[in-house]
Specification:
single chain, alpha+beta, Ribosomal Protein S8, Chain: A, domain 1, five-stranded antiparallel β-sheet, 3 helices, 5 strands, 32% helix
Length: 137
């Protein structure tokens, strides 16, 4: 009969040090999307929640993307945290519910994230509000 001591065991370091190979392909996809944005003006969005990340992949991707200078939070039906990466035009957009649990994580490749752009109706409302202030003055 075999005892527990006879079973071979291989120890692997912490999961955060493993690299399952998905961070670099995503970074390559970001590169292609950024080139397309420059050439055609077409923005792109990558749903990181749909990626088959293994342990440590998301952390590795975030390390590769780095941090930029711009952050923003939008509060509407939960918070949306927007963070510029070290690469201009590449944004991390994290959607949270009212309990601050993540419900979505995307990369947006665009000059300005869609969430921060005013809607056409908002622009019309702003113009009308400015006209009203000018009329009062």
């Amino acid at each position: 009969m075999t005892s527990l001591g006879d079973i071979p065991v291989t120890v692997i370091g912490p999961a955060t040090t493993l690299n399952f190979g998905n961070a670099l392909p995503v970074l390559s996809e970001v590169r292609q999307a950024l080139a397309r944005l420059m050439e055609t003006g077409e923005p792109a969005q990558i749903d990181l929640g749909a990626m088959p990340f293994g342990p440590g992949d998301e952390e590795r991707l975030m390390q590769l993307l780095g941090s930029g200078e711009v952050t923003a939070t939008v509060d509407a039906l939960g918070s949306t945290r927007i963070r510029e990466t070290a690469f201009g035009g590449v944004w991390i957009v994290e959607y949270l519910n009212a309990d601050e649990q993540r419900v979505g994580l995307h990369l947006e490749i665009d000059e300005v994230p869609r969430m921060l752009r005013p809607q056409p109706g908002d622009l019309a409302d702003a113009l009308a509000a400015i006209d009203a202030r000018l009329a009062e003055a």
